[in-house]
Amino acid sequence: MKKSFRATVCVAALMVSSASVSFAADEVNIYSYRQPFLIEPLLEAFTKETGILTNLIFANKGLETRIKAEGEYSPADLLLSTDVGRLQAAAQQGIAQPVVSDTLKANIPAHFRDGDNQWFGLTSRARVVYASKERVEQDSITYEELSDPKWQGRICTRSGQHDYTIGLIASMIVHHGAEETKTWLEGVKANLARRPTGNDRAQVKAVYAGECDIALGNTYYMGKMQTNDKEPEQKQWAESVRILFPNSDGRGTHVNISGMLLTKHAPNRESAVKLMEFLSSEEAQQIYAEGNFEYPVKEGVQPSELVMSWGSFTPDSVELSKIADARKEASELVDIVDFDAGAN
Amino acid sequence: MTKSNDAASAITTNGLISQLKRWLSGRVSPRVMGTSRVALVLLALILLMVIAPILSLVVIAFGDAGDVWPHLLSTVLPRSVMTTIWLMLGVGSLTALIGVSTAWLVTMCRFPGRALFQWALLMPLAIPTYIVAYAAVDMFDYSGPAQSLIRWLFGFQSARDYWFPEVRSLPGSILVMSFVLYPYVFLTTRATFLMQSACALDVSRTLGAGPVRLFFAVALPLARPAIVVGVTLAMMECLNDIGAVEFFGVKTLTFSVYDTWLNRASLAGAAQISTVMLLVVLLLLWLERRGRREQRFTTTTRRYQSLPSFRLGGWRAGLAVMACALPILIGFLLPASILMRSVFFHWRDNLNADFLAAMGNSLFLASFAAVLTALLGTALAYFARTQKSALVSAVTRLSSIGYAVPGTVLAVGILIPVAQLDNLIAASMRDWFGLATGLILISSGAAMLYAYCVRFMAMSYGAGETGLQRISPNLEAASRTLGRSSWRTLVEIDLPLIRPSLISGALLVFVDVMKELPATILLRPFNFDTLATLVYGQASLEAFEKGALAALTIVAVGLVPVILLSRTSSRSMQG
């Protein structure tokens, strides 16, 4: 026991040195749900400009719980996340602190940030319909009509419990109320070509394969497939569909965001706020949005050419925080209608 | 046996307390205390360490879950309970079928390729379920080779022209998981077949039992404890799996736990479901124990004669080869070849500094955790054996519970007490020494090691226990009668005898730490990657091909112990 304890100490010491943890004032520690490849170019640019170094932990779940558990001594300064629902939930758990910054206010439109300055959007993406070029004639579509029996056996989507689907259903609740949304969701379920499985890209693949005619997906997947040189087959999938921006002629297409928040006990508060402001700047917005084929939130910054080639659209202008509030109800509706069981 | 008998009688609930009291007040003569004091303290410490995360889960479960339960009960839970039951029954029976039949074939029958199959059948052990799941979908979905061939053969144009079973389904996940998890059954069962007294089998053959009768009437009942252990491991693994079920869209209880925690933002609700799951697992373990109690076999000799064997020829040999080849093909060759193909085409994206650093981290963590867990697990098993009390063995059994909890749930259960301790340390360092140490347990990686120990204690404990079970108490008694202390008996008699089990337990831990994902992800320090997190990072980008080398390395490293494992168990046959 003594020996193993001694060994533990040795190992701990070794790992401290290899993990390069430090609490110097000129560093920012980031917990991120966004992939390293996406934010590393930004962080490099930031370090170049300010001399402030960055440390990163990437995960796909549980970071809020970790920040909360680590409490007062948590090394985390910044949480980078996707989906307004998660940002809002994090703020409600009390792990964020408000940031009052004129730069952030000027750069990020009001409906893309929290009224209490707890979280801020950085990029946006639209939830669109990928329609088969061969089998779908119409040039416009609405979310509402997805429950129309004319789509029976023709719709593919990922799980109803996924953040993206819940966001869309929540926006339906905001526009139409829970009762009507439930009826709608039952209609969509009845139209499903198969049980909801796989990610957004798998749905487009299913359209290509002829399993369904329309698929729901986030915009950036189009870019990922169109530029996929590693698996050129995906370019064919992308080639078989076109993007329809639902409700673009009316109330607007549902959009969601990726964003950030400053943690409550951020040890490097000043540097972290600098990084936040940097991320909302024109330079960073351009890099960030381009890296993942998303839309910059800062007005006047253009998305990449590829993204613009999909056409322009009117985004739904409802406040994102309202959608976040309806999220729980949306998630429950998915269970009540047993959406993920598919049609039949 | 006098001293340990003393200890045994002392350790009932009251005995334990009074002994502790006597010990604390120093009224116990040093002679009596000798082993039992050390034993007690060690036992208590290890147990506390291993059970702390579970306790913290229970504490979380007592928190306010909000209003999730009425909704969960009326919608999600009934469905996910049924799904989970079907999954476990399916995987349980299929792994038992594959594991036992292949173990019997390679141990007792002679047919072409037998020597190869003996160790090759263990290979799927090296492959994480999520990788096999990925490979299966790659192979059998619309654009995969299987369906492409069908389309080409029959001239179909699209998915609407023909029916093909959906891989991403409950039956699909049962099949896929069974083909990766059967080695648990194979391993434990084969070891037992090998160690079964040749005499018992010889006697039954002399009495006229044919191969079939021998199998069902003698070997199978004798191997039942081992089969149960293997199947229980496999079932627990599929109960807490999230990678594969998520990929397949199969909504198990574990899936509901995640859902409740993340989508309904109710950690307490998630902890409550987990706690109920834990109770079910405890019940299972208890039933398993009860079933086994009536069947305790030990051997009295270490001389193993070569086992009787049946020579298979003609179509029987062909069938045997097929029965052994199929699991290897599906559980190993298929996924491995898909990985190799990716490495071959994208080796530039794969072989880089990140990869090497991650490999170093993985090997280091895995070996350290393996040794540590083996030490602790064996110690626990040994103490439970010496203290012949129902209470002690029940409490000790609890140490295996970490394996039955979904990885991320356990990680949360670890995170919270460790973070609290860490905060305490940080505050004291600041107040007493003016040092800003930060959260030293988490940032040093000690939290990860701790998590591995808790999670995989079941393996080393189980291995130690099965090993010890086969040692006849007579041997120990003889050793003690001849004047050896209990400590010397452990070192000179028991440890050498259980060495094969010990090693195999440590190796299982090693391989599993290499594959471990959820706890590593939640507890890792800044800028720190293991091979598994590297694979996961790339897979989450759907750039699986870039993580292929890391995945293949996990598999390859996993193979080394697999080969050693098969050598250890063959050697134990010759004795």
> What is the multimeric organization of the chains shown?
heterodimer
Order of helices and strands of chain A: HEHEHEHEHEEHHHEHHEEHHEHHH
Residue share in β-strands of chain A: 15-25%
The chain pair forming the largest interface, with residue counts per chain, is: A-B, 65 and 70 residues
Regarding CATH, which class of the largest domain in chain A?
Answer: Alpha Beta
* Beta strand count of chain A: 10
Taken in chain order, the helices and strands of chain B follow as HHHHHEHHHHHHHHHEHHHHHHHHHHHH
Q: What is the helix content of chain A?
A: 40-55%
CATH topology of the largest domain in chain A: D-Maltodextrin-Binding Protein, domain 2
Briefly, what CATH class of the largest domain in chain B?
Mainly Alpha
Main location (chain B): membrane
Membrane topology (chain B): Multi-pass membrane protein
Pfam families (chain B): BPD_transp_1
Subcellular location (chain B): Cell membrane
Walkthrough of the structure:
The complex is a heterodimer of chains A (344) and B (575). Chain A has 344 residues and is an alpha/beta fold. Chain A has two domains: 171 residues, D-Maltodextrin-Binding Protein, domain 2 (3-Layer(aba) Sandwich); 159 residues, Periplasmic binding protein-like II (D-Maltodextrin-Binding Protein, domain 2, 3-Layer(aba) Sandwich). Chain A has 15 helices and ten strands. The longest helix of chain A has 18 residues. Chain A is globular, with a radius of gyration of 22 Å. The termini of chain A are far apart. The relative contact order of chain A is 0.19. The N terminus of chain A is likely disordered. Chain B is mainly alpha-helical and 575 residues long. Chain B has two domains: 297 residues, MetI-like (MetI-like fold); 214 residues, MetI-like fold. Helices cover 77% and strands 1% of the residues of chain B. Chain B has 26 helices and two strands. A two-stranded parallel ribbon of chain B has the order 1-2. In chain B, helix 5 crosses helix 15. The N terminus of chain B is likely disordered. At the A-B interface, helix 1, strand 2, helix 3, helix 8 and helix 15 of A face helix 13, helix 17, helix 19, helix 20 and helix 24 of B. Chain A: Belongs to the bacterial solute-binding protein 1 family. Chain A: Keywords: Iron, Metal-binding, Signal.
